[in-house]
Write a structure and sequence with these properties.
Blueprint (H helix, E strand, L loop, with lengths): L2 H14 L6 E6 L10 H4 L7 H20 L21 E7 L4 E7 L3 E10 L8 H4 L2 H8 L3 H26 L8 E6 L4 E6 L11 E8 L3 E9 L16
Antiparallel strand pairs: 1-3, 2-3, 4-8, 5-6, 6-7, 7-8
Length: 243
């Protein structure tokens, strides 16, 4: 197995372990040119630079592979006006990528109301970005750790915030800044909680949402699943009832 395939395999396995049954995960390499776009999809990146077109195509390829695992046939996933994929009726999903990986998670709506995934390189977040991403409480928590770990943990906080944002967005369409979410990481078991520090539409201040933030040798991946059945994680998240 090549080094590239090995890191994608590890990323897929780590992500699958964090999601409920009824959610499929697939990965693709955005550095190759093997992912064709359907005509309905191509318009979204017609004016994009080649790197962006490759990432977009690899993300769609991964999403179709995940759909196939759920028994769905191949079909186009055009971009909506807000640039999110238009999922087939009965499905929901999320796509993320970095320079070396594309990751797609797709679930049945009868299992999950929405999904959020973010993948990042497992490298320290640039020091000048940390105050822009992290709230005072998060900065205080980082200060309790050795300096050598702070950038890596800040990267995980960033990744978790992205995953939460992507999970709520299909339900609310709400845009907000990093300061709206306060992340509490649990590195010992790869989980996190996110607290809304102010209201966001039907989401009241102090509402919490829970997810996973895992690391591989090369990547950080955060996932959020808003369960559609009683007893599932985040099934009581306020906007699920307004979808």
């Amino acid at each position: 197995m090549s080094r590239e395939a090995d890191h994608l395999t590890a990323l897929k396995a780590q992500t699958e372990a964090c999601l409920p049954e009824g959610v499929a995960v697939a990965v693709a390499d955005p550095t190759t040119k093997d992912a064709p776009l359907w005509p309905q999809e191509a318009a979204a990146v017609a004016k994009a630079v080649p790197k962006r077109r490759l990432e977009f195509a690899a993300g769609r390829l991964a999403a179709r592979q995940a759909m196939a695992e759920l028994g769905w046939g191949a079909q186009p996933l055009p971009a909506q006006a807000d640039r999110t994929p238009l999922w087939p009726e009965g499905l929901t999903g999320s796509i993320s990528h970095d320079a070396s990986s594309c990751l797609a998670v797709v679930g049945l709506l009868e299992v999950v109301h929405a999904l959020g995934v973010d993948v990042e390189p497992n490298t320290p977040l640039p020091e000048d970005l940390i105050p822009e991403i992290c709230r005072p409480e998060e900065l205080a928590w980082l200060s309790e750790h050795p300096a050598s770990q702070r950038g890596l943990l800040a990267r995980q906080i960033f990744c978790a915030k992205e995953a939460v944002f992507k999970a709520q967005f299909p339900l609310t369409g709400a845009l907000f800044g990093f300061d709206v979410l306060q992340i509490t990481l649990r590195p010992h078991d790869g989980r996190f909680s996110a607290r809304f520090t102010e209201p966001v539409q039907a989401i009241s201040a102090d509402t919490e949402i829970h997810g996973h933030c895992q690391t591989t040798a090369t990547h950080v991946v955060a996932t959020v699943a808003l369960g559609a059945r009683a007893g599932m994680e985040n099934a009581n998240f306020p906007v699920c009832a307004t979808r």
